[in-house]
């Protein structure tokens, strides 16, 4: 069976879907500091350190180019890829959410977003829903999207950058009555699913949080642990928009998982970067 045939199978498509987030993580971590460019050779080599073979890398990159995430860019005679401008903007927004997480308080109140999109612009409706979901909004009622009040600036900036402001109204709100607010939060967001995602992150990555175990580890070993860990983590702050702890279950795992991520980032990130840049610069020669 040829590589082209394999890429058309459902299993291959699933593998490409898994590899794409790894590639996005690599570009976010290491390409932006290298003039937003990685050569084909360096990307293939660095992905091999994560156990991904060259044909799968090229297939995933092709899919990402079709989706407008990456662009083909040559530096002289060397082929490579850059992040599209829209992707750079999304990653810059994500840096704050991922590395500088802010937990709201009840006193921050809420944001309410409602929108109206003409039937002839269905794609805008989809884009709005996608943007609000990515920001972590829940649904308080049909057509009423809700998020913690401290996300006002980020929400405005995101909708402005996507040119969606003409369809949207944003309100600040307080819950005055009726019913128990803590119970309502559990209907506005799928807290059970989110709790399981946090628990899974803790199960998978807690064994890494022993600095002594990394005392003799190589930069390559740190890289192999760090990039998949960060790739898994970076979707979680979008699913949890920083709901006030007072409104979450008493045994909420989000804070514990966040502390684990910060610890692993501190232990692994610099040595992982050392390995990545060695590979990138070595492949460029």
Automatic annotation (TrEMBL):
<feature type="domain" description="Transcriptional repressor PaaX-like central Cas2-like">
    <location>
        <begin position="105"/>
        <end position="184"/>
    </location>
</feature>
<feature type="domain" description="Transcriptional repressor PaaX-like N-terminal">
    <location>
        <begin position="22"/>
        <end position="86"/>
    </location>
</feature>
<dbReference type="InterPro" id="IPR012906">
    <property type="entry name" value="PaaX-like_N"/>
</dbReference>
<dbReference type="InterPro" id="IPR036388">
    <property type="entry name" value="WH-like_DNA-bd_sf"/>
</dbReference>
<dbReference type="Pfam" id="PF08223">
    <property type="entry name" value="PaaX_C"/>
</dbReference>
<dbReference type="InterPro" id="IPR013225">
    <property type="entry name" value="PaaX_C"/>
</dbReference>
<dbReference type="InterPro" id="IPR048846">
    <property type="entry name" value="PaaX-like_central"/>
</dbReference>
<dbReference type="Pfam" id="PF20803">
    <property type="entry name" value="PaaX_M"/>
</dbReference>
<protein>
    <submittedName>
        <fullName>PaaX family transcriptional regulator</fullName>
    </submittedName>
</protein>
<dbReference type="Pfam" id="PF07848">
    <property type="entry name" value="PaaX"/>
</dbReference>
<dbReference type="InterPro" id="IPR011965">
    <property type="entry name" value="PaaX_trns_reg"/>
</dbReference>
<feature type="domain" description="Transcriptional repressor PaaX-like C-terminal">
    <location>
        <begin position="189"/>
        <end position="276"/>
    </location>
</feature>
